[in-house]
Amino acid sequence: MQLNSRIARRIIETVGAYGTPPEYGFQFFTAGLDEYLRCIHEEYLKTYIKEEGGSVVKIVIGAYGGGKTHFLYSIRELAWQENFVVSYVALSPEESPFHRLEAVYRTIVNNLTYPLQPEELLKGVEKGIEAFLITWYEKQMDVFKNIGLKGEVLEKEIEQYLESVQRNIENINFAKAVATAFFALHDEDEKTFKHVLQWLKVEGYDKGIYRPLGILSPIDRSNAFSILRSLVQWVRNIGYSGLVILFDEAEQIPSLSTRQRELTLSNLRELIDACMYTSFRHVMIFYALPDERFFEGPSHIYEALKQRISSVFDFFNPSGVKIKLENTKGDPLALLEEIGYKLKYIFETAYGVRFPSQIENVIKIVAQEAYERRFGDIGYIRLFVQGIIKVFHLLRKNPLLVNKTSEICQILEEGSG
After folding, report:
1. Which of 126, 153, 261, 298 is most buried as measured by Cβ atoms within 10 A of its Cβ?
2. For the stretch 232-241, what's the b/e string if a residue is b when 16 or more beta carbons lie within 10 angstroms of its beta carbon?
3. In terms of C-beta distances under 8 Å and separation of at least 24 residues, what long-range contacts does 258-266 make, across chains too?
4. In what order do the strands lie in the sheet with 112-113?
5. Given this model, what pLDDT does residue 95 score?
6. N-to-C CA span, the chain
7. What is the pLDDT of residues 19-44, one digit of tens each?
8. How many C-beta atoms lie closer than 10 Å to residue 94's C-beta?
């Protein structure tokens, strides 16, 4: 989809207000990531994960406001191109705590998305296991109807199809649940469908309800990995390439207790170890967090995990586990200027304006200011994009300011608090 004023306006509003990329539109101002994205696409998504049945975990390290979400959105787009199901999870201590395995699974299914087109992203298509099941049912029924199946022949074909879908799914309860959901949609049995959804989303277990459906136990910590493997096996059986999971952890690390922190690290280590076994196939997991110090501590858990993630990913060593976003950037000022030029074009498209050539000097100055004002764990990219959009708005209202860079800097400084 080409950039138009509607998309451009949405980009400017999202980036200018929050410093974060929109779900669609980030592509128009991506910079500095091409080599890493190409490597992940070619080495993993197109080949090792999709064709060879591999599974890997990558740890993405980037400052708060340093481009982690932008990077993960880029991965999601590439994964969809290769027909992967994707679950993008914004981790939080309350809603999606990583220290509880069953909660990790729940957040994954609550954020499942089949490959989406730009128009669907812009419309805000519903995500999660309910929408995913309904889409699966509707697409498969279209296949049956397009080849002329109806009546008893159709019913028999549905039974045979669901038998094939359940084949080779590790957890029998999971296999039974997704097949029951399909039948419930076909029979317009809303009550049964809702019960299955509640089980799949780890929202309780009542023997009286689930045992008659053939679902004999709840999802809990003891079977969470088995259920996760079964989820991947199911999406493969219904025609997708596999599953890509994107964990985006922003600021929750300091709020965890020592025990929760150790459980989080232990679960992450288990995920990494699971990728070494052939039973966990066609999966790629990214865990993005702002601070590498999270992996430092005195216990054996910290040491065991550090050994597993010591290698660094780059173009020459794609097998490395840690992706350090700071290493992708090269000259940080040149990167900011490139982003600035792209945002300038987006802003011009959004508002139907044209900035004079002097805007290039303004972009350079704002880039320098943002880089010099970076502090602590706050990434200078976010400081820059919010600052430059504020400047574009100023120049839209008062074009003569383009030659008064000192005034622009003063306005930015006054607004930084």
Report:
1. 261
2. bbbbbbbebb
3. 259/99, 260/93, 260/97, 260/99, 261/99, 261/294, 261/297, 262/297, 262/299, 262/301, 263/99, 263/100, 264/97, 264/98, 264/99, 265/294, 265/295, 265/297, 265/301, 265/302, 265/305, 266/301
4. 112-113, 85-91, 243-249, 283-289, 55-61, 322-324
5. 64
6. 37
7. 899 999 999 999 999 999 999 999 99
8. 7
Pairing status of strand 55-61 against strand 283-289: parallel
Burial of 120 (0-12, 13-18, 19+ CB in 10 A): middle
Would you say 40 and 50 are in contact if contact means Cβ atoms under 8 Å apart?
no
Residue 232: strand, helix, or coil: helix
Q: pLDDT tens for residues 55-86?
A: 999 999 988 888 999 999 999 999 999 999 99
Q: Which residues contact 79 (CB under 8 A, 6 or more apart)?
A: 45, 86, 244, 284
The full set of domain ranges for the chain reads 33-115+240-328, 131-223, 332-415
Read off the tokens for 38: 């190409």
Q: Quickly name the fold that domain 33-115+240-328 has.
A: Rossmann fold (3.40.50)
**Does pLDDT of 255 surpass 80?**
no
Cα separation, 221 vs 45, in Å, equals 29
Distance of CA 199 to the CA centre of its chain: 24
